[in-house]
Amino acid sequence: MNIPKNLKKGDTIGIIAPSGDLREYTINEIKLGIESYGYKVKIGKSCYLTYRGYLAGNDEIRASDLENMFLDTDIDAIMCLRGGYGTSRILNLINYDIIKNNPKVFIGFSDITALHIAFNKKCDLVTYHGIMANTVNKWDDFSYKSLIECINFKDELILKNPCKDSIKSLYKGKASGDIIGGNLSMIACSLGTEYEIDTMGKILFIEEVGEYIYRVDRLLNHLSLAKKFDDCNGIIFGDFNDCRKSTKQDCDLIDLLVEIANRYKKPTLYNIKSGHCKPMVTIPFGIKCKIDADECSIIFNKK
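The structure corresponding to this sequence follows.
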């Protein structure tokens, strides 16, 4: 895998909007917020645009903005503005040789999952499932520290949940493999395309937000039918913020996760605070990952 160089104070972070358009804050507020952490900032063209009411510019502009940030030798890291919807629309417009030949830190989550999967599969690039630019004025110390430690660790990194949230086990055992995954809906959307997630011999990470329980059930079942749980070595369930019942009779979310763990009998952990939550743990996709569901530990290794 291509592991990008470390990110240090004084480096330049390029901000792009490969998905949804800007919401809540102004570009200047976001720029000043990131600069306050000691970085230089370059704003991509897509960040200023709105298209169709929910996209940050048309597909060609967003794909070009992405490529230009990887080509720009002044840029040390690329952070996505926000999620929303749109990355799956640009997958077939990207020149993946540009990304592969110019490896850089790439940060984002939620809808950005489509790019994590594509970059992992086509470019062998390690990417970071972490905080995004539009929430910079709400970054907490834990989330920022988790991002920087994840990008800059030398050999081994032990995943640390926020102190009040313990990692829990659903099925005992130990497993290792490169870690890949992201948002459940986006993982499911990749199936049947050339950008389909490859879970063979890997640790599969899954998070979701704002879905009814029966929809989470449907999405997990889609992955089951596609053999993604058969293929993986282990499973990590992240945050499932606001995944709720549609009726009082619906089962609890944990029942679905337990079902998957027991059916596939793979080492399975849950309650990892990564996803649409605060504080948020950063996860390095493409890095070797060891999970111990007996001791409830997760270790990333660059070797």
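The domain at 12-139 is CATH 3.40.50.10740 (Rossmann fold).
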